[in-house]
Amino acid sequence: MVLTYIDVNKDIWSGLGLGMINNFWERFIKLFTKTILYVWYIRWFWKPEEGSINEILNRAAKRDPEFTFVQIGANDGYHNDPLYKFIRAYNWNGIMVEPQVHVFERLKKNHKGNDVLKFENAAISAEKGVIPFYMLAVSTARWATGMSSFDQKHIEEHIDIGFVKKWATREGITLPENREDYIKCVEVQTMNFDDLIAKHGLNDVDGIILDCEGFDSMVLSTVDIPGYNPDIILFEHLHFKDEDYQELTDRLSDLGYELRSDEMDTIAFKR
């Protein structure tokens, strides 16, 4: 999921030469999420907007504190992650899947000490194997790793709209003269969903959460949704074609799910 928020008025701080204040604030917030005060706040005082994706997830957490999940495309498991607060506050049990090796190490570090989570450095596909995977070559920051994809054109679109230039400038990166040098291709391991569940011994799957940069529908097509019967399916629709989005939501509706959407994501849920 590509970052879309403006983090703590970063442009203002940078303009004043006070970027270190923003960095300090971000570190402070991250440390706070590790405290019991954060857990208490999420469990007892946090009130997400009614009908929002957060509210539906929060309702699931209160109904089933032992909620189990599979998150595909977990990235670092912290920045812009829809599950982080619930993992911290309710100790949710699940499998977090991330194909990028360096990002996978950040993911494990961000959940260090959590002995109920399982981690898998792979991509989910119909078959076990190896597949080309494209990522931005100029940075390994969260804004860059969030656009990594099986489709090179997905990254090229972010270059075309100026997204890469804007964030590279903020990071102080001089971009290459040749456009071809913006992107690199690596091979990542793939495994199917059933093998993932069997490997990690997850008995139930209450939620399937995806952020696959336009490939969410393809990944979901490899999952036996009626068989696993998850209560919640959350996916990013931002990069869907209209016809693909309609096909997927029709399929989920036919399976008895209600749907809610915001500007980026759609959640399918059963009451």
In short:
With 271 residues, this protein is of the alpha/beta class.
- Uncertain stretches of 5 or more adjacent residues: 1-18
Instruction: Report the top-level CATH class of the largest domain.
Output: Alpha Beta
State the shape.
globular
- Which strand order does the major sheet show? 3-2-1-7-8-10-9
At CATH level 3, the topology of the largest domain is Rossmann fold
Strand content: 15-25%
Number of structural domains: 2
Helix content: 40-55%
Structural class: alpha/beta
The mean pLDDT is 90
Question: What does the largest sheet look like?
Answer: 7 strands, mixed
Keywords:
271 residues, Rossmann fold, seven-stranded mixed beta sheet, three-stranded mixed beta sheet, 13 helices, 10 strands, disordered N terminus
Write the layout of secondary structure elements.
Layout: H1 10-15, H2 19-32, H3 36-45, H4 53-63, E1 68-72, H5 84-90, E2 93-97, H6 101-110, E3 118-120, E4 123-124, E5 129-136, H7 142-145, H8 152-160, H9 163-171, E6 183-191, H10 193-200, E7 207-210, H11 216-220, H12 225-228, E8 232-236, H13 242-254, E9 258-261, E10 265-269
Helix pairs in contact: 3-5
Can you describe this structure?
The protein has helices at residues 10-15, 19-32, 36-45, 53-63, 84-90, 101-110, 142-145, 152-160, 163-171, 193-200, 216-220, 225-228, 242-254, and strands at 68-72, 93-97, 118-120, 123-124, 129-136, 183-191, 207-210, 232-236, 258-261, 265-269. The chain is 41% helix and 18% strand. The longest helix has 14 residues, at 19-32. By secondary structure, the chain is α/β, with parallel strands linked by helices. 33% of the residues are buried. The radius of gyration is 19 Å and the shape is globular. The chain has two domains: 49-128 and 193-271, Vaccinia Virus protein VP39 (Rossmann fold), CATH 3.40.50; 132-191, no CATH class. Helix 3 (36-45) packs across helix 5 (84-90).
